[in-house]
Amino acid sequence: MTAYRSDLLRVLDERGYIHQTTDGAALDALALKQVVPGYIGFDPTAPSLHVGSLVQIMLLRRLQQTGHKPIVLMGGGTGKIGDPSFKDEARKLLGADSIQSNVNSIKRIFERFLTFGDGPTDAVMLDNSEWLDKLEYIPFLRDVGQHFSVNRMLSFDSVKLRLDREQSLSFLEFNYMILQAYDFMELQRRANCRLQMGGSDQWGNIVNGIELTRRMDGVEVFGVTTPLITTADGGKMGKTMSGAVWLNEDSLPAYDYWQFWRNTHDADVGKFLRLFTDIPVDEIARLEALQGSEINDAKKVLADAATALCRGPEAAVAAAETARTTFEQGSAGADLPTLAVSGSIGLIDAILQLGFVASKNEARRLIAQGGARVDGESVTDEAYVIAVSGQVKLSAGKKRHGVLTAA
Questions:
Q1: CATH no., domain 253-327
Q2: Per-residue pLDDT tens for 286-331?
Q3: Residue list for the binding site
Q4: pLDDT for 61-74, tens place per residue?
Q5: Could you state, in order of their start, the residue ranges of all structural domains in the chain?
Q6: pTM, 2 dp
Q7: Binding site for ATP: which residues?
Q8: What 3 state SS string does the chain have?
Q9: Which residues are annotated as a binding site for L-tyrosine?
């Protein structure tokens, strides 16, 4: 680890957030001298962010915890285009009403992680539609466009990989990196923002913003990127068989959120405790050193702490109790996902509607592999019909459970 002197970079370094910095020594010196406003942008492409965005949210939390000012930038403007970085194809374009609805929904999650207000280190939330929607095309090309080299833009990995695969990159998407660079400059002007943070796939966009701000305003600003977070088995963080792990309660029940963390691979427990909880690093070192079945205790600590941050302490306690009654007592916990059924339902439909899988084909595979159980009994007939007169416990594998109740 680099010997940083500021609390900001020292904490980010020891907890595993730093992949690249544009000038770590200068940023370290600035963070020692003053409050550093820093931002991360979030495009509102859905009503909820998912676990894949959680490293960035926690990065803003660490910024505030170490005495600096988080700026949450909602991409009400850039969301109308969609970030093409490392995407195989263009995102579906959303209308203004859908984007605003998503912005309103996403805002709620940040209040769990950050303290908002008017103080010097209080978080603020801005929307880049405030300035991007007002840009005039010709003046923008003359004033801003002249500072961008198309040759250099084509060399960035986020663009180059798309072109190397001979996958279409629209002119609309190509403009995204210019608009993001403009965001950084605009935030420096409006909020004295000196730092942009993001995932490693944002490196090129961040560098563009730094150079544009230097050329147009003569101000030194900085960038920090986080590593790509993968699981021990090489998978992408937050991707499960049944889809994304959403942060908003109305997109994913608290029990399922808790269970996601409880199912962490043994080798990932320490890393995830550092990134996604506030547990001190000395205690994390003790937890990740646990061996054998005792590592499950560390996983429960991770699940409790991560769920308490995102959903609140009461939700974490309820989810843990549901897990205890489900796994230790073999009964159906009160917080399990529930599906009301009139009379009867096919096994495939029940598995799908409880959210255990994303498609009927996945449900069929689960059943064929012996992973479906009705009231604890394995069922391998995909045509099986469940009669529901009271309460029926349905399980998919060892770790996903739900309840069918009579409507």
A1: 1.10.240.10
A2: 999 999 889 999 999 999 999 999 999 999 999 999 888 776 555 5
A3: 39, 176, 180, 239
A4: 999 999 999 999 99
A5: 7-226, 253-327, 338-406
A6: 0.79
A7: 239
A8: CCCCCCHHHHHHHHCCCCCEECCHHHHHHHHHHCCCEEEEEECCCCCCCEHHHHHHHHHHHHHHHCCCEEEEEECCCHHHCCCCCCCCCCCCCCCHHHHHHHHHHHHHHHHHHCCECCCCCCEEEEECHHHHCCCCHHHHHHHCHHHCCHHHHHHCHHHHHHHHCCCCCCHHHHCHHHHHHHHHHHHHHHHCCCEEEEEHHHHHHHHHHHHHHHHHHCCCCEEEEECCCECCCCCECCEECCEECECCCCCCCHHHHHHHHHCCCHHHHHHHHHHHCCCCHHHHHHHHCCCHHHHHHHHHHHHHHHHHHHHCHHHHHHHHHHHHHHHCCCCCCCCCCEEEECEEEEHHHHHHHCCCCCCHHHHHHHHHCCCEEECCEECCCCCCEEEECCEEEEEECCCEEEEEEEC
A9: 39, 176, 180
